[in-house]
Amino acid sequence: MTDNHSLETPFRSCTAFQDDRLLSSGSPRDVAVAVQTATLAHPAASILTFDDRSGAVIDFDLRGSAAEVQARLAGLPEGTSAVDAASSETASRGRGRPRLGVVSREVTLLPRHWDWLAAQSGGASHALRRLVEEARLRDGGQSRQRLAREAAYCFMSAMAGNRPGFEEASRALFAGDEARFLTEVASWPEDIRKHIHRLGWGAAQAGPSG
Question: Where are the alpha helices (DSSP H) in 119-165?
Answer without folding.
Answer: 123-139, 142-160
